[in-house]
Amino acid sequence: MKAVVLRSFGEAGNLKMEDVPVPTPGRGEVLLRVHACGVCYHDVINRRGNLPRTSVPAILGHEAAGEVVAVGPDTPGWKTGDRAATLQRLSCGTCALCRSGRNSLCKTDNRFFGEELPGGYSQFMVAPVAGLGRVPASLPWEEAATVCCTTGTAVHTLRTRGKVRAGETVLITGASGGVGMSAVQLAKLDGARVIAVTSGEAKVQPLRDAGADEVILSRGLDFASEVRKRTKGQGVDLAVEIVGSVTFDQTLKSLTPGGRLVVVGNLESGIVQVNPGLVIVKELEIIGAYATNQAELDEALRLTATGGVRQFVTDKVPLAEAARAHFRLENREVAGRLVLVPPQA
Ligand SMILES: [Zn+2]
Ligand SMILES: [Zn+2]
């Protein structure tokens, strides 16, 4: 089969198509014919060698969608012809954390596709079924591939961790990215009033089109006062922090007393100073959100298939052009999401 193999960490040009053997599914695993695999910024970081759990040679890609073509032994519930999409990471399903629904915190099995497990930059891939969601028949492959990292993350962040309720006001920073655009749509769907923050003027209209009630154009330094103005001095009930360190202070200051701040992204990997007094007197809650579990992915796929949340796939590119796809992503030449399509022969 054809696969893009990374033999040494470094530049985009190191991603090269090769002929490699088709893998065999083991216990609890299926073989997928990959129909589409999203290219995520995470893959760029991985390719550069900045993810310690990846060793070369590696096949990248954690945003795969495909059809089951073989089922390993002791793999109940799955059959050939089933349509599936991958979660970012696995979980064991049996530890105390998994049994309480906190699968994204599981330490027993925390393997990632494209890191410890060969990923979707390939014609075929083996996937443990614990790492798969079910793709509805009506959903195009290229959309199914990107749902987990965008809408799946939004479901986990807004509903599971943020416990969004109808009638609340929700602030979303970094709103024009993949997670942000899904979060805006999902918060609206769940009956919230949405204030989106973006740093790009070109992103204002797409955010309005996605349903944002208010869009604040800001470079990240001064939006809290604007949020106050647009909430009659109240502040927001819930904030989704996708940018991280750069906007954290302003996001915290945007909260109403008793407000919740869910942190799901930290793009610059920076640190922040927090005034504990503010957290104390306003009884603020600072909550982390990480990855997606199987039920959340199924829900995100359902929401996408029924039109509740739209995906923004801009480009379908042949798998052979993976290096070029990385180059474009690194140079910010991609507006929405980019997916690789392996040869289907
Ligand atoms: Zn991703
Ligand atoms: Zn577990």
TrEMBL record:
Give start and end of each Enoyl reductase (ER) domain.
10-340
Q: Does the keyword Nuclease apply?
A: no
Domain of life of the organism encoding this protein? Bacteria
Write down a Pfam family by its short name. ADH_zinc_N
Subcellular location(s): the record lists:
Cytoplasm
Alphabetical UniProt keywords: Acetylation, Cytoplasm, NADP, RNA-binding
Show the PANTHER family listed in the entry: QUINONE OXIDOREDUCTASE
Q: What protein name applies here?
A: Zinc-binding dehydrogenase
The subunit structure is: Homotetramer.
Major location, coarse class?
cytoplasm
Key word NADP present = yes
Q: Which PROSITE patterns match?
A: QOR_ZETA_CRYSTAL (PS01162)
